[in-house]
Amino acid sequence: MASTRDWFESVAEARRRARRRLPRPVFMALEAGAEAGVTRADNVAAFGQLRFAPPRLADLPAARDLRTSVLGVDIGLPVIASPVGAQAVHPLGEVAVALGTRAAGTAMGLSEFASRPAAEIAAVNPSLFFQVHWSADRDTLLERAEIARTAGARALIVTLDWSFPAGRDWGSPAIPERLDLAALLRLAPAGLARPRYLIDWLRHGGLPDLTVPNMARPGEPAPGFFAAYRSWTTVPPPTWADIAWLRERWAGEFLVKGVMRPDDARRALDAGATAVSVSNHGGNNLDGTPASIRALPAVAEAVAGRAEVLLDGGIRRGGDVVKALALGARAVMIGRPCLWGLAAGGPAGVRNVFDVLRSGIDSTLLALGCQSIHHLDPADVIVPEDFTQGLK
Question: Is 375 labeled as catalytic in the residue annotation?
Answer without folding.
Answer: no
